[in-house]
Design goal:
Layout lengths: L1 E6 L5 H10 L4 E4 L16 H9 L3 H5 L9 E5 L2 E5 L15 H14 L3 E3 L3 E8 L2 E8 L5 E11 L6 H6 L3 E5 L3 E9 L5 E6 L3 E7 L5 E8 L3 H5 L2 H12 L1 H10 L1 E2 L4 E4 L3 E4 L2 E2 L2 E3 L5 E2 L7 H20 L5 H26 L6 H11 L2 H12 L4 H4 L2 H11 L12
Organism: Rhodococcus wratislaviensis
GO molecular function, one term: FAD binding
InterPro entries: FAD-bd, FAD/NAD-bd_sf, Geranylgeranyl_reductase
């Protein structure tokens, strides 16, 4: 009998399991993959996410893999350019974009080192229930052996297509359709630093350095263009980069070498799911997902895995009823993530509303507010502060934005 079973052992599941094991609980973590293994990902870890790794004693391990530090960011939205970097957060003055083959292996090994029992290549097929509560899981190992495990609580950390969410019938109570697709791969021979460039015509390219002297290069367009793009993605990548910044298109064409296959992905829908119930909880993309455009998936997985570990501890220790503690987890997650969720939905269609156009256009003209923009991106400045109407009014006055463009609220 375990205290906790965690289904899914990547960026949400392994930290959750590790933190609970460090508190002395008996934890089982299962995953259908074996590690190291890849998964579609932005790779990007914001300073706020790196702060969690630092607190857990894992940041140095990520850095030691040779993943390059990034200390300058280049953002553009059509003709608006914002270049710079945030102030340090918890002493962290860089961001990192590790390969998931690297990061997830570190996380699962750290969970095992904390005492978590880990079973790889385990496919969960059903949940065990008793008197209306989830009390365990059923599944099969890689060799087909059927097994059943029991626990006081089962947590689904198994992504957007969570088997746990499906089996408990977790309802979506807030959502919006995904708008775009992404194609990315890894290239040698280029050294661009970090770029996040949205051009005219609803298209975007992004690039950042990662492990093994490679750069991840990604492009995005609306979903309806996905079928045509698939016919010749190499040409499509260059077409988009040429349109946004021909200098980088030329460099990729003549100096870049694609080293791996493309990873295509239609953006999953955006949603909040009911994330707790009798004997179960959801964390990471299993419970809450937003478009990868803002790159907050890994950081949020870390942040809310830690939050859930604290609330499960409250319940298991008897300090509070478990469902009361889990309700606090969902409420706090929703409150803290609301700003990122709304911002992501507003800009992930690869266009800017008049409000965001005004805000970012004005911020680009103010060195002080540009610094605040990167603080917002890093997780060091809350959206409530950055987008406060009184602060925007001061910004618009500072840069003498035309009165007709001084939008203070999104509506």
């Amino acid at each position: 009998m375990y205290d906790v079973i965690v289904v899914g052992a990547r960026v949400a599941g392994s930290p959750l399991a590790m933190l609970l094991a460090r508190r002395g609980y008996r934890v089982l973590a299962v995953d259908r993959a074996s590690f190291p293994s890849d998964t579609v990902s932005t790779h990007y870890i914001h300073q706020a996410g790196l702060s969690r790794l630092k607190d857990w004693g894992l940041l140095d391990k990520v850095i030691a893999t040779g993943c390059p530090p990034i200390r300058h960011l280049n953002f553009s939205y059509t003709d608006i350019a914002l270049d710079g970097f945030a102030d340090p957060i918890d002493g962290i003055d860089a961001v990192y974009c590790p390969r998931r083959t690297v990061l997830d292996k570190i996380l699962i090994e750290s969970a095992a080192a904390a005492g978590v029992e880990v079973i790889e290549r385990f496919k969960v097929t059903d949940l065990v229930e008793h008197d209306g509560r989830v009390v365990g899981i059923r599944g099969t190992e890689g060799d087909g052996t059927a097994l059943e495990f029991r626990a006081q609580i089962v947590v689904g950390a198994d992504g957007a297509n969570s088997i746990v969410a499906s089996k408990v019938g977790a309802d979506t109570y807030r959502g919006a359709p995904g708008g775009c697709f992404v194609y990315y791969s890894y290239y040698s021979g280029i050294d661009w630093g970090m770029h996040h460039r949205t051009g005219f015509g609803r298209q975007q390219f992004a690039s950042w350095p990662t492990n093994d002297d490679l750069s991840l290069v990604a492009v995005m367009r609306p979903r309806e263009k996905f079928r045509d793009f698939r016919a010749d993605p190499d040409a499509g990548v260059n077409e988009i980069i040429d349109a946004i910044d021909p200098k980088y298109g030329e460099d990729l064409r003549y100096n870049g070498t694609r080293e791996e296959q493309f990873r295509p992905m239609l953006y999953p829908d955006n949603y909040y799911r009911q994330s707790f119930g009798p004997g179960w909880a959801l964390v990471g993309d299993a419970g809450y997902h937003k478009d990868p455009f803002t790159g907050w998936g890994i950081t949020d997985a870390f942040k809310y895995a830690e939050l859930l570990s604290e609330q499960i501890d409250e319940g298991l220790s008897g300090r509070r009823p478990m469902e009361e503690a889990l309700a606090d987890y969902q409420r706090t997650r929703d409150e803290q993530s609301a700003g990122t969720y709304e911002l992501t939905l507003s800009i992930s269609e690869l266009t800017l509303t008049p409000y965001y156009d005004s805000v970012f256009r004005a911020a680009a003209k103010s060195p002080a507010y540009t610094k605040k923009f990167f603080g917002l991106i890093a997780g060091g400045i809350p959206g409530e502060e950055f987008f406060a109407p009184q602060n925007l009014a001061g910004l618009y006055a500072e840069v003498d934005l035309p009165e007709s463009d001084r939008h203070l609220t999104p509506a």
